[in-house]
From TrEMBL:
<keyword id="KW-0227">DNA damage</keyword>
<comment type="similarity">
    <text>Belongs to the RecO family.</text>
</comment>
<dbReference type="InterPro" id="IPR042242">
    <property type="entry name" value="RecO_C"/>
</dbReference>
<comment type="function">
    <text>Involved in DNA repair and RecF pathway recombination.</text>
</comment>
<feature type="domain" description="DNA replication/recombination mediator RecO N-terminal">
    <location>
        <begin position="1"/>
        <end position="78"/>
    </location>
</feature>
<dbReference type="Pfam" id="PF11967">
    <property type="entry name" value="RecO_N"/>
</dbReference>
<dbReference type="InterPro" id="IPR003717">
    <property type="entry name" value="RecO"/>
</dbReference>
<keyword id="KW-0233">DNA recombination</keyword>
<dbReference type="Pfam" id="PF02565">
    <property type="entry name" value="RecO_C"/>
</dbReference>
<dbReference type="InterPro" id="IPR037278">
    <property type="entry name" value="ARFGAP/RecO"/>
</dbReference>
<keyword id="KW-0234">DNA repair</keyword>
<dbReference type="InterPro" id="IPR012340">
    <property type="entry name" value="NA-bd_OB-fold"/>
</dbReference>
<protein>
    <recommendedName>
        <fullName>DNA repair protein RecO</fullName>
    </recommendedName>
</protein>
<dbReference type="InterPro" id="IPR022572">
    <property type="entry name" value="DNA_rep/recomb_RecO_N"/>
</dbReference>
Length: 242
């Protein structure tokens, strides 16, 4: 039988039949995987709890025609236990998992796996504000997918910045000459925060004001959803940054 092993993050699950589940996972080496986990909804299942959303596992799978089959699962990181009971962590993790699930197979790289893994680990530990972890993840996931926003030079004409307008449809910040009527104008602190979120400068991120955090979250949400070409449902359940 053609079998293989990989490390995975569980993105979502849904029921199949009376006792099975279809599990969607982002793996380190095989991209996105959809597999059947047989019998995991029974109380006697040995690895059902290891295949819940936000869990990290070492799995062995059998290669099927349309869906693979999970044969074994060993827990590597039980992040869900610390994420699910906290509303802010849960909604942020849900938005991250939903975004990862939108990746095309060519975009589901080892770097994407490690980025999601790091984000879930940070959420589970409460290292930073949950919305900030999500915002940093969204900026980075867009960059890894080839949609890196311009946050310094004008995205349209290349004029050196910083600039005060942000237009998702044009690729990021734009100068006053390129900004369409009605463009969102940023405070300087918001621009600094966007750059810090992308670079992982957490001392700057953690010290940002509530107003800058809320403004940057709105711009990042608009940018990510524009490039994904449809809304991220989980974002509607997020509370505004405080």
């Amino acid at each position: 039988m053609p079998t293989y092993r990989d490390e995975v993050v569980v993105l979502r699950t849904h029921k199949l039949g009376e006792a099975d589940r279809i599990v969607t996972m982002l793996s380190r080496r095989h991209g996105k995987i959809r597999a059947v986990a047989k019998g995991v909804r029974r109380t006697s299942s040995k690895f059902g709890a290891r295949l819940e959303p936000f869990m990290v596992a070492d799995v062995q799978l059998y290669k099927g025609r349309s869906l693979d089959i999970v044969q074994q699962a060993e827990s590597l990181g039980a992040y869900g236990a610390d994420i699910v009971p906290d509303y802010e962590r849960y909604t942020a993790a849900s938005a991250m998992a939903e975004t990862a699930d939108r990746l095309n197979e060519s975009e589901a790289t080892p770097q994407q796996y490690l980025l999601l893994l790091g984000g879930l680990r940070a959420l589970s530990r409460g290292e930073h504000a949950s919305r900030s972890v999500l915002d940093s993840y969204l900026l980075r996931v867009m960059s890894l997918s080839g949609w890196a926003p311009s946050l310094q030079a004008c995205a349209r004409c290349g004029a050196p910045g910083p600039h005060e307008w942000f237009v998702a449809q044009l690729g990021g910040v734009v100068c006053s000459s390129c900004a369409p009527t009605g463009s969102a104008r940023m405070a300087p602190e918001t621009g600094d925060l966007l750059r810090a979120l992308l670079a992982g400068e957490w001392d700057v991120v953690d010290a940002a004001s509530a107003g800058a955090s809320a403004a940057s979250s709105g711009l990042i949400s608009a940018y990510a959803q524009f490039h994904l070409e449809r809304g991220i449902r989980s974002l509607s359940h997020l509370e505004a940054p405080r």
